[in-house]
Amino acid sequence: MSLSLDATQLDRYSRHLITDEIGPEGQATLLDSSVLVVGAGGLGAPVIQYLAAAGVGTLGVVDDDVVERSNLQRQVIHADSDVGRPKVDSAAAFVADLNPDVTVETHDRRLSPDNAAELIADYDLVVDGSDNFPTRYLLNDACRLAEVPLVNGAVYKFEGQVTTLVPDGPCYRCLFPEAPDPGTVPDCATTGVLGVLPGTIGCLQATEAVKLLVGVGDPLVGTLLSYDAMELATERVPYQQSPDCPVCGEGGIDSIAAVDYSDGCGIDDPQPNA
Amino acid sequence: MRWKLFADLAERAGDDEINVSVDDSEPTAGDALDALLAEYPQLADRVFTADGDLESHLNLLRNGENVSDTGLATPVSDDDELALFPPVSGG
């Protein structure tokens, strides 16, 4: 690791550098770090924005959507002139404008069971800014198998959830073993979502990511933070590693090859031949 | 006791904090859930599987502690706050 920050960097990151908790060493760690952000939408936008500003040296962005005008009420890295442009390109342009220290690796495709392991392998940490249960369960499983920390965040209308999943802590399936059946929980397009809500939740995810990378503070491991925008209230819901967890429990899966992510993402018998 | 509902459960009920009473000397979370569903029957097919079990993705909390292990058999008392907590997926 190089501790030699140039004069511009000493200026740019000065408010980090003067803190004991981050300092020059923590800033150098951030500059040497790589984070994969899955989804450049409501959650991904503030995550990309703040991690780029913080000087996370390499940001991977996975998304196969193009910017739509209805995104702009909350997806603050995309502009009116970006409508119709791939979100990964719009995100990369935003970051290039904000901080030349950051290299953006664009992945203009959908995260799938076929490419998840390969995409995750190159990064120190993954932030889940996806908008559907199959991707969330896939990311949980793939990150756990690859032993890569994952910062999970999700929103529903006026409520949000954040939790941090590290290799030696409980995983998302310890808390929610399976997804609700498709169609049970309506999506943002159906229910609507308060525009600033994913901003709040994404900023909490970015906070967790920076803490994990620098190695400071207490991450939300084994705790789900629930946020209610209407009441401006939070609750911390504790959860523990489940011995029966089909991913991180005894005899859990060692590959995602046999997992069906199309419906409830359930894993009935982790190792049928074991 | 009081139920607290989150996300789509609160939407479906039309309320997120609901007081119920159970006439039983040793009430359980299951009794409290029955009392909730008597008032809000529209929740029944959202919280139970076809087999009548509590949906596995719903976390049951008692006074902020996760009691999903003991589930509906968890003993409860009049001044407890119970919660049903689903995952959300929007981004």
TrEMBL record, chain A:
Molecular function via GO: ATP binding; nucleotidyltransferase activity; sulfotransferase activity; thiosulfate-cyanide sulfurtransferase activity; ubiquitin-like modifier activating enzyme activity
Pfam families: ThiF
InterPro entries from the UniProt entry: ThiF/MoeB/HesA (IPR045886), ThiF_NAD_FAD-bd (IPR000594), Ubiquitin-activating_enz (IPR035985)
Entry GO terms, CC: cytosol
Record keywords: ATP-binding, Nucleotide-binding, Nucleotidyltransferase, Transferase
Every THIF-type NAD/FAD binding fold domain range: 13-247
Matches recorded under SUPFAM superfamilies: Activating enzymes of the ubiquitin-like proteins
Protein name per its UniProtKB record: Adenylyltransferase
Species annotation: Halonotius aquaticus
Automatic annotation (TrEMBL), chain B:
Gene3D superfamilies reported in the protein's UniProt record: 3.10.20.30
Positions of the UniProt region annotated as Disordered: 71-91
Pfam families per the UniProt record, alphabetical: ThiS (PF02597)
Segments traversing the membrane: none
InterPro entries: Beta-grasp_dom_sf, MoaD_arc-typ, Mopterin_synth/thiamin_S_b, SAMP1_3, Sulfur_Carrier/Prot_Modifier, ThiS/MoaD-like
UniProt cross-references to PANTHER family, sorted A to Z: SULFUR CARRIER PROTEIN CYSO, SULFUR CARRIER PROTEIN SLR0821-RELATED
Protein's recorded name: Molybdopterin synthase sulfur carrier subunit
